Amino acid sequence: MAFPEPKPRAPELPQKRLKTLDCGQGAVRAVRFNVDGNYCLTCGSDKTLKLWNPLRGTLLRTYSGHGYEVLDAAGSFDNSHLCSGGGDKTVVLWDVATGQVVRKFRGHAGKVNTVQFNEEATVILSGSIDSSIRCWDCRSRKPEPVQTLDEARDGISSVKVSDHEILAGSVDGRVRRYDLRMGQVFSDYVGSPITCTCFSRDGQCTLISSLDSTLRLLDKDTGELLGEYVGHKNQKYKLDCCLSERDTHVVSCSEDGKVFFWDLVEGALALALPVGSSVVQSLAYHPTEPCLLTAMGGSIQYWREETYEAEGGAG
C-alpha cells in the first residue's frame, strides 16, 4: 500500500524581528544577501560597503574606495568577490578576503544605480542614470566595457541577470529583456517609471514595481499581465521588490514604513509588516528560507518566521 505524499508546509512569512543592526555608515542605501544567504552587504551613504553576519550581528569587513555614496552591491557565486556601484559613477570589483579594490571601472556618465554579476562572475553588469547598461569583463585589463546596451530613453533603475538573459527596468516606463542566446530584445511598456524588476525563482515570470504604487507580474515570454498588487506606497523613491523563497508571495518595500506581502496567485494582501516610521529603503529575501532583511535609515532589520528558533539560543 502506497502512503500519500506528505502535504507540503504552508509557506511562513518572516514577521519576527530577530535583530536590528546599526550599520554606522550613514543612510543604508541597499541591503543584499550573498549567494547562500549566510552573509549580507550594506551600502552606505558614507561611501562604504560593509559585510555582515546578520544573524550574529557581527561586522566582518568594511570596504572603502568609492568617492561618493554606495547605491548597490552584489556578491559572486563563490563568495570570493564583490561588486558595487555608486554616486561616483564607478563600478568597483573587490576582493572579499583582503578588502582591496581589484578593479575600478569608469565610463558611466552618471551615478550607478544597480550592479550584478553574471552567473560565472566573469562579467559585471551596471545600470546608470545615464540610460545605459554596461558590461565589464572582470578578467580583462581593458578599461572600456565589452558591451553597452543603450536602448533605454531614461535612467536605468534595475538590472537582473539569469544564465542567458538580462532584465532591465528604466525610468522611461519600459522593462527590457535581452535574450543573449537569441540576440534579441523584448520590451514591455508599463508607463510609470520603473523602480525595480526581478525574475521569479522558476524563471517563468517577471515582477515589476513602478512609481504608481503598483507591482505587476508578467509572463516573461508573452508579456501577459498575470497579476497586480496594490496597497503599499511608492511614488518618490527607488524601492526594492522581490518574490519569496518559494514564489508564493510578492514582497515590496513601502514609503509608509512597512513591508507588504501579497499572495502571488490570489493577489490579496497577506501581511503589512511594520518596520518603522520612515521609508523602507531596501529589502533582500533569503534564497532558500523565510528570512528577510530590511533597511531603514542607518540600520537593517533581520526577520524570520514566527516558529523560528535560532540555534544556540541566539535571538
UniProtKB/TrEMBL annotation:
It holds the Pfam family WD40. GO terms for cellular component: catalytic step 2 spliceosome; cytoplasm. One of its GO terms (biological process) is mRNA splicing, via spliceosome. InterPro entries: WD40/YVTN_repeat-like_dom_sf (IPR015943), WD40_PAC1 (IPR020472), WD40_repeat_CS (IPR019775), WD40_repeat_dom_sf (IPR036322), WD40_rpt (IPR001680), WD_repeat_MORG1 (IPR051980). It comes from the Eukaryota. PROSITE patterns: WD_REPEATS_1, WD_REPEATS_2, WD_REPEATS_REGION. It is found in: Cytoplasm. Keywords: Cytoplasm, Repeat, WD repeat. WD repeats lie at residues 21-62, 63-104, 105-146. PANTHER family: WD REPEAT DOMAIN-CONTAINING PROTEIN 83 (PTHR22842:SF3), WD40 REPEAT PROTEIN (PTHR22842). Interacts with EGLN3/PHD3. Interacts with ERK signaling proteins MAP2K1/MEK1, MAP2K2/MEK2, LAMTOR3, ARAF/Raf-1, MAPK1/ERK2 and MAPK3/ERK1. Identified in the spliceosome C complex. Interacts with PARD6B and CRB3. Interacts strongly with GTP-bound RRAGA but not with inactive GDP-bound. Interacts with p62/SQSTM1. Belongs to the WD repeat MORG1 family. This is WD repeat domain-containing protein 83. It comes from Neotoma lepida.
